[in-house]
Structure formats: C-alpha cells, structure tokens
Specification:
heterodimer; A: 269 residues; mainly beta; Pectate Lyase C-like; 2 domains; 4 helices; 15 strands; 9% helix; B: 306 residues; alpha+beta; Alpha-Beta Plaits; 15-stranded mixed β-sheet
Chain lengths: 269, 306
Amino acid sequence: MKALTFTLVGEPPERLDLSGLTPERLAGKGRRDIENIRIGMSRRGSLVGDMFRVAGSDTSSIVFEGGSERFDRLAEGMQDGSIRVVGGAGAQAGRAMHGGALTIEGDAGPHAGSCMRGGRIEIHGNAGDHLGAPLAGELAGMNGGVAIVRGKAGAFAADRMRRGLIAVLKGAGDHAGSRMIAGTLAVAGGTGEMPGYLMRRGSILLDRAPKKLSPSFVECGAPDSVFAAVIDRYLVGEKILKHPLLGRSPRRYGGDNAVLGLGEILFPA
Amino acid sequence: MPKLKRNLRVNGVKIDDTFAEAFGMRATALLITGPSRKWARQAAISMTGYATSVIGCGCEAAIDVDVPPSATPDGRPGCRVMVFAVSTDELAKQVLNRVGQCVLTSPGSACFADLTGVAELKLGASLRYFGDGWQISKKFGGRHFWRVPVMDGEFLCEAMAGLTKDAVGGGNLLLLAADNAGALAAAEAAVAAIGKVRGAITPFPGGVVRSGSKVGSKYKSMTASTNDAFSPTLRGVTKSELGPGDNAVLEIVIDGETSDAVAEAMRAGIGAVTELGPGKGATRISAGNYGGKLGKFHYHLKDLLP
C-alpha cells in the first residue's frame, strides 16, 4: 500500500485544524470520507478535499506534500504510525502525542510537542516558542518521548517539562527549561537569558557556558560523570548530534534554589 | 552412576559414555563498567566473590566476558557478570546486596542491565535510596537510570535488571589425570576456553572445583558430601570410578544463560582438554550426574565432542 498522501493545492485561506488527520483517526476511512472531513477553523470551514489532493491508502503512513504555517494541531494525540510534512507546520504540532513519529521538514510554530507523552518529533527547521510546553492552565508540559529541533527553538523551550528528551541543535531562546519538573533538555548553539529559570528538577545540557544564569544556581564543580558519557553516546548513536555535547567531566550548576533546587545545568568544563 | 564404556578417545584422551545432569535456575546479567579495566574487573570480582555454589552462598556468580569500551553504554571498559539462583526472590536479594556492597562502593563504577528476560529485578530502583533524596532519575532511549551522588561523583545504575527463567546450572566436566599438575593444566585450558563462550560462567575459584560432591551424607546435617567415587585416596575402600593411573580429578562446573550456552561451554571445555592431550593434561573426561532422575537437563559427552 502507498502512503496516504495529502498534496496541498494552494496556500490555505484560513487556519486548519489537522488533528483529525492522524493514523488512528483515519483508519478504516475511504478517500471520500477523508475528503469530507472539515478542517477549516473559520466560518469558511474548508474540507480536506478543498485543501488537498488525496492519494494512497496506507493510513499508518501519512505524508503532507507541502506545508504551511497555518497547519495547526498536526498529529495531535497520535498513537502510532508516522506523519511526514514536506514543508512547515503551524501551532501545536505533535501536541499530546503518545507514540509514532512526526517529521516536519520545515519550521514549526509555537507549542510544538506540547504535553507529548511518547513518540518522536523531528523538526528539520526552527521551532517557535514554548516547545514541549503546556498550554495556559495546564500543570505540566512534555511528559515523555523525544523532540528534536535541528534548527533553533524560541523562548521557554521545555517549560514545565516533566519527562522525556528535547534536543535543540542551533540554539534556544530565553528561559530554556524554565520551571522544569524533570526530564532532559539538550541545547547546542547557546541559550538566551536565564536557562533553567525556576526549574525544580531535570537536566539542561549545553554545549557551552550559559551567557547569563540566575544567581540562584550554585556551582557544583566538574566531577567525572558517567551520565554525561552515556547521554553523549546516546545522542550521537541516535544521530541526534554529530559530536558529544558534554565530555567526561562537565561543569555542573545546581538549581534553581529559588524553588526546589534539584535541577542541574551541565556544560563542557 | 551409569555403567561406563571407555572406548571413546579423542587425541588420546578417553571420553566416558556418560552425561552431566543440570537443573533449571533463575539468572540475570549485569554490565559493570569502571574508569579502567582494572577497576571494572575489581568491582566485578568483589561482586561475584563468595558465590561458588547455591548450597552455601545463596547464588552462583562470575564474570562472563570482558566487554570492550566500544560496546559499553558509557564507553569505558566493562565486565559482563552473571548471577544464578534457585528462586527469583533469592536472586533479587543476592543481586541487590552484592551490587549495593561491592559495585556501588567501587571507585568510578557504573552498573547496567545486560539481559532482557521475562521478568525484572529491582536494581537502581532500590539502591537509589542511598542518595537520601538527592538521587536523580533519567529515562531515555527506552532505559531508566538512577544517578546516586557519591563521594567521587555519581553512581549510575540501571533501574531494573532482566531475569531469565531459562537458565541452567550444574553443567560439569570431570577431568581425570595421572597427577595434580596434569589435572590443573587441563582444568585451566578448559576454563580459558569456556571463558570465551558468552552466556556461560564457571563460578568456582578460577573456574575449578577440587571438592566435587555427591548428594547426601552419613551425617544428618549434611545435604552434600565428598564425591568418594572420584577421590583417589578412597580407591579401594569405596566404589571408585577411578582407574589405576588416575591420581587427581578436578571438576569444572558450568552455569549458562540457556541450555545451549551450557552445551557450547562443555563442548569448548572438552575441545581444549583433548587438544592439550593426555601427556600434559587429562587422560580421561567424565561428568557428574544423579542417574538422570533429578535434573531436567542432560548433556551427553559423546554429543559434545569437538
């Protein structure tokens, strides 16, 4: 069977809610049924058939030929299978994913991977603000899985992250890892203001010393770290990074002591 | 003991037409790494100390194979260690105590699970409490680790270790020689060859037993006693299995992750002993059994010839 392919016929005239186009929600549906799914978020109410040319039938493998920053809620709640976007995506891509793989070959908007619990998101371009973070009113952000951003991430990446791994390869904005509950955020390419601001637990792994750190972090020296060796080998082995991030004895700062203080920021000594 | 037929010979070494009788066991495997080969082995040796026989030690354990840095999760030298016990509860207790007292305490060590099985034992999930609240949980790549702060940095330990119920304990070879030097040379050759078989260990000192046992004793308190049939000084006063020229016998006891691993190890051992030949080593190879009624696994020597 060929992958179920949605070929974008033109720039969408409204924001699109693509949360209904996941492998489990499309399973068993025929092409006509799929084309009649409403995805437009304004009164215009565009249908799938208005925006895409639909081909293929393998709902476990979905391809969007062409992307748009108006593609919202892409792969939301996905459990299994794969979705690939040949282009960019809008807000909340991969939100609350439980499994499967989402690949975005362009940029993603804000709240990518928000509250995801499992699976793997790979964004070849940049990600907007609040990568993996909760929406307003939610208590915790990313709760499992892996999110990889090969470009830059905006501000508040991994905000209130609880579990899982986020890797950003070309730098993150201000307050990366703010209010982290646990989990691991790896950033190559530098971070903005105050990484780890009000983090309770969790690990922020950097490839260089942070430019400005909250004074409520304390230096803990640079003892040999087996964890650093293991995560370095994992990141390189999974082809997330080309080179080790930390080395054998990274410098460690503990914090944020303005809150629980059990988190850490590690970077090469 | 079944009647012996002594007409099988390989490179001049007699092979008895008999079999080793072995039992089902529970087992786990751990990968212990250290800052150098010396310290990885030191942690592994300490952890597997006093673990020769379940009769008196609670478990049987030994280093399975050395693991090169390129094959360990942290890129440091490592040792694969196997631990065998008769029950899941005993295995869990032994592993936890031994890792807690011998690996956690060893400079620069880390401990990883190295076996995927039907069940799991708590490892770091229990040892983490040593961290007194400062321990850190890390989950990535489908694995769960605990980082426990210690005086030289951190002890990294996998949260759970796999357990197999397909393990086999009690595979064995009896090496008969004209003198002690010959028996020891044969035993050393066999242990070296078995050491290359992944998934099989020889838990006794240096892999060798000189005090093979039989079931039962004339004393009520003893469950096992000396194997008089293979003890040269008792020739003539007991029903001996030894010929007139057999003056020393050493035993190799083998535990394996699977029955195939035990068979492969016995094959390797027989191969090494026969290659050495009767002039420098053993003149005869036999095996211990209980008539085939106690153990589920039987390894016939004639089926394991090189």
